[in-house]
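Bumping my old thread because nobody answered last time. Still need a sequence for this structure:
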């Protein structure tokens, strides 16, 4: 059971008003040293912690930033992004509460309960939610996976990743391209957009439409995909994978089928996770500027809270291809 100021008042034998004056160090109120000490000792004995919501009401501002993450899997890159944002904001006295939105609780119910000074969304907010938070005096910072008409929204265009993958594979002489999609439906927001980029670039360059397969992170799943690609009318010679983990599964499937990479099948991933460079052969991948993205989001939060600060400059190099032996 939570210890309240009323408990401290009973324990110390003074009124709740006196407890409030002491604990909040209210200026202009005369409290004897003996009374002050009695209240503080009682609070310590009971383990009293002031309510964050009450503290926010008194000060006019919370020190809490609510970070809303859609129902995505938390992989290495997203974990790094959240960690970097958290550390950056902590240097300015702000704490981050991460909420993974699984649809079980309305966002309005959450922000009203935790009284944040800002809400950072890793995907666009519903317009009604954004308006309600703004009316409540909460700074709203959003990001998107597609081009967004709002200039304050940070965009990491996922289609451009797929286009980069095909551009690189074509530069290596390939025409028959496949796309290895993830098996986890929670990644569809990213995977569908990257696939759209692959399809767009293949069409632009006059290539056959990419052959699609969902690849689970097992050798058996990857072998089935590789066999289907190689048995096509025009055998696939290059694979754009959703991310490095899926690409590593494809490498395992190619090895199980006795294929040479990149001689028989070239493979490119996304993310540049640490094990990508340890693969055999080392994995070509699309590197993402996660630290720069995190700096931008943290800077946007700070600028939204302090109008005297300049909004951060958008990072220019958001992603590029790191060519290794797999292509």
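Sorry it took so long. Here it is:
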């Amino acid at each position: 059971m939570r210890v309240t100021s009323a408990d401290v008042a009973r324990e110390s034998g003074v009124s709740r008003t006196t407890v409030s004056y002491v604990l909040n160090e209210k200026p202009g109120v005369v409290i004897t040293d003996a009374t002050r000490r009695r209240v503080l000792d009682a609070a310590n004995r009971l383990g009293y912690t002031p309510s964050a919501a009450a503290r926010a009401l008194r000060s006019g501002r919370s020190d809490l930033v609510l970070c809303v993450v859609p129902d995505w899997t938390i992989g290495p890159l997203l974990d790094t992004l959240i960690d970097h944002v958290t550390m950056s904001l902590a240097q300015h006295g702000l704490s981050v509460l991460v909420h993974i939105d699984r649809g079980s609780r309305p966002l309005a119910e959450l922000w009203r309960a935790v009284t944040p000074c800002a809400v950072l969304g890793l995907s666009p907010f519903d317009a009604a939610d954004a308006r309600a938070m703004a009316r409540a005096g909460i700074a709203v910072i959003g990001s998107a996976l597609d081009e967004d008409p709002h200039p304050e929204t940070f965009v990491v265009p996922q289609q451009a990743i797929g286009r980069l993958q095909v551009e690189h594979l074509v530069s290596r002489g390939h025409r028959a391209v496949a796309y290895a999609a993830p098996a986890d439906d929670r990644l569809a927001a990213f995977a569908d957009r990257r696939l759209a980029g692959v399809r767009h670039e293949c069409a632009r360059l006059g290539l056959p439409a990419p052959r699609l397969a969902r690849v689970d992170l097992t050798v058996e799943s990857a072998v089935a995909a590789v066999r289907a690609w190689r048995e096509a009318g025009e055998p696939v010679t290059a694979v754009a994978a959703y991310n490095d983990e899926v690409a590593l599964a494809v490498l395992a499937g190619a090895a199980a089928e006795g294929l040479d990479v990149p001689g028989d099948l070239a493979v490119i991933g996304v993310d540049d996770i640490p094990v990508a460079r340890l693969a055999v052969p080392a994995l070509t991948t699309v590197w993402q500027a996660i630290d720069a993205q995190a700096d931008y989001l943290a800077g946007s939060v700070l600028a939204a809270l302090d109008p005297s600060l300049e909004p951060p400059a958008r990072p220019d190099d958001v992603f590029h291809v790191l060519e290794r032996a797999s292509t």
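Residues 188-204 form the longest helix (17 residues). Let me know if any region looks off to you.
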